[in-house]
């Protein structure tokens, strides 16, 4: 899923998650896109081998395939391992924690030509939704430029990041960095939580070369000691825009909070989010938020604290919902008008 709205001050929260947001990051030779591009070139060289091409056809429709599966001759092991290690570093995730590189056929219409023997190109999708061209590699490694104006008839294999796995690991990174000492909570019979009854994000015209992204949420408020608290969770079922989901997922655990108020920010990882940088930015922002005896909206405080040098039109910010309360039982639009959230009280019983 991609979004293309609210591209001014509210999107500042996302800057920490973009590997191309700052000049320093742009100068880094190991951005997610650059790493994926190098692997795409290496895979294209192997496609001159008919046995490799046959393996690719046998794996069609190729949706989230480990590149190792097409290494028929065993020549790509070191290259794939290096790419996976570099991707983890670029995304601020622990070394050795996952294999993030994956292959995807760019569009379902390409399955037929691929199975009919048309040689595929290999590329990595650009981060920019408005990109006009994509560098793709022919079997053997020769580069050509594909127009993004229309879907190519020739099959295209995209090398990209497994964002579902990355987001799950990233939540742990964020939580580890922003977690402050927590008060002891005694639960005698259970506690109240807020449960998502429905959730929906608006429809946009996303380009053909973009795959699914992983939606995650940051829920914030004040803990029982009066310190800022931020909890994270992934919403892996949110695959399609303009579609309502009914997950019954717990969003807020109220036994962790001092006030019956919390805010939630929805974000997406479309491949380039650096979770370590995001965690550090959150820590820096939360350090300035103090409990003055009244609830302070977490979203406002974080956005105000972000440096203006991080502003961008990167569309990784999805929406924010303010002032969730423990007894809230409603369905309403979030602040940006893109998200619609339904919640209700939910009693979590002790075993």
UniProtKB/TrEMBL annotation:
Residues 1-26 form the signal peptide. This is DUF3103 domain-containing protein. InterPro entries: DUF3103. It holds the Pfam family DUF3103. The keyword Signal applies. Keywords: Signal. It comes from Kibdelosporangium banguiense.
């Amino acid at each position: 899923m991609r979004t293309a709205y609210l591209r001014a001050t509210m999107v500042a929260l996302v800057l920490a998650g973009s590997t191309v947001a700052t000049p320093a990051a742009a100068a880094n030779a190991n951005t997610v896109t650059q790493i994926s591009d190098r692997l795409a070139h290496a895979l294209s060289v192997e496609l001159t081998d008919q046995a490799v091409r046959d393996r690719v056809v046998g794996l069609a429709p190729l949706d989230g395939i480990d590149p190792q599966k097409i290494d028929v001759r065993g020549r790509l092991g070191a290259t794939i391992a290096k790419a996976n290690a570099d991707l983890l570093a670029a995304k601020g995730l622990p070394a050795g924690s996952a294999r993030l590189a994956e292959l995807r056929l760019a569009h379902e219409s390409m399955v037929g030509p691929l199975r009919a023997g048309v040689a595929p190109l290999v590329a990595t999708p650009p981060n920019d939704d408005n990109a006009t061209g994509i560098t793709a590699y022919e079997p053997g490694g020769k580069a050509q430029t594909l127009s993004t104006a229309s879907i190519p008839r020739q099959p295209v294999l995209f090398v990209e990041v497994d964002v579902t796995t990355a987001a799950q690991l990233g939540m742990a990174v964020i939580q580890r960095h922003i977690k402050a000492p927590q008060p002891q909570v005694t639960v005698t019979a259970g506690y109240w939580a807020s449960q998502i009854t429905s959730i929906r994000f608006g429809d946009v015209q996303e380009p053909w070369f973009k795959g699914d992204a992983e939606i995650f949420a940051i829920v914030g408020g004040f803990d029982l000691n009066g310190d800022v608290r931020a909890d994270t969770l992934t919403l892996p079922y949110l695959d399609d825009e303009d579609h309502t989901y009914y997950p019954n997922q717990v969003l807020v655990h109220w036994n962790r909070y001092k006030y019956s108020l919390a805010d939630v920010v929805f974000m997406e990882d479309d491949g380039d989010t650096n979770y370590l940088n995001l965690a550090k930015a959150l820590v820096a922002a939360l350090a300035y938020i103090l409990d003055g005896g009244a609830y302070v909206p977490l979203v406002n405080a974080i956005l105000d604290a972000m440096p203006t040098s991080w502003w961008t039109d990167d569309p990784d910010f999805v929406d924010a919902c303010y002032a969730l309360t423990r007894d809230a039982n409603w369905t309403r639009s979030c602040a940006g008008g893109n998200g619609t959230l339904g919640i209700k009280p939910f009693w979590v019983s002790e075993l």
